[in-house]
């Protein structure tokens, strides 16, 4: 994002370093990646989730590209354990979770965490982490064989361990993160089919959102018919909540603009609906997500009339709103996006940044006090770190490529 005040840039850089420092404790030398509590300590008894391992490998690959000492060994550890410990040598793919000893705890094979293996491999590959390129190729091949449904132009949700029984449910969250992963892989490889798949995922998601007045449906049956009442009895589910998830509106808005950029880099015309959809999703997030109950912050979900369903504030929603505002400002130059960008950073600094114990509070209640209704602890630094980096970097399909491109720019002349 252009024309950031120098001290704001410095603040973002300092916050990036603070987050990278906090997240180091998740790396278990004897195993994979653990779940951090509010103080940044490993949480006893909490599984070692595949999606956390993928996210942290991505994060510390970014840190390595940024030249932050100590990040490269963590990225290398991530590539190593993703290539071995989490990998199912018998049936292929990756285990969803491990126990404290590194043994498989959840053997289902789900698209959502597999997307983060692709993301980890792409970022590690760009950061030239040993084994990163091989991990990326392996993950792309597994997703291509097991999860990508070429008929529907989307990924399926979940298999059993042996890839014999497929869940009837289809989810947009898994496809959103697969879109992110495919864009990162496109940045790493330049392969045209990854961009084509990104466009197909984006088009189906935008069609579904448009049909609901841009309140993005999250849950579908096997024929991609929306299940609007899904989890009505479990409204605060951390991964599959009832209703429409406000943070995903912003996340999709940013990703759609990255698809647009990928089209430009591939020398093809970007469909007009990409930007039109990004603008509509962002505007709805402002109208129905921000201060929807009269108090600062974003509600977690809304119902199909746009009324708040779960009012707790999740840190990742604010992070994605900032990323979307920064990206829209970069591609449009419109001042209104700068207004929201500044407004939401003020909110984050006032309520989410934990200056005492590190990182950000991952959840707040309706009065903006720390809460754990939906998620406990501070599992990773993925969303928060990206919020600090996106405003500083050129718009690229993958964040690791953006960091690498920014690093290749000539340094400014020193003033004498």
TrEMBL record:
Q: Which InterPro entries match?
A: 6-hairpin_glycosidase_sf, 6hp_glycosidase-like_sf, AGE/CE
Q: What is this protein called?
A: AGE family epimerase/isomerase
Recorded hits in Gene3D superfamilies, A to Z, give: 1.50.10.10
Q: Which family does it belong to?
A: Belongs to the N-acylglucosamine 2-epimerase family.
- Gene Ontology terms: biological process: carbohydrate metabolic process
Give the molecular function GO annotations.
Answer: isomerase activity
Keyword match Isomerase: yes
Recorded source organism is Georgenia thermotolerans
Q: Which UniProt keywords apply?
A: Isomerase
Lineage runs: Bacteria, Bacillati, Actinomycetota, Actinomycetes, Micrococcales
Pfam families, alphabetized: GlcNAc_2-epim
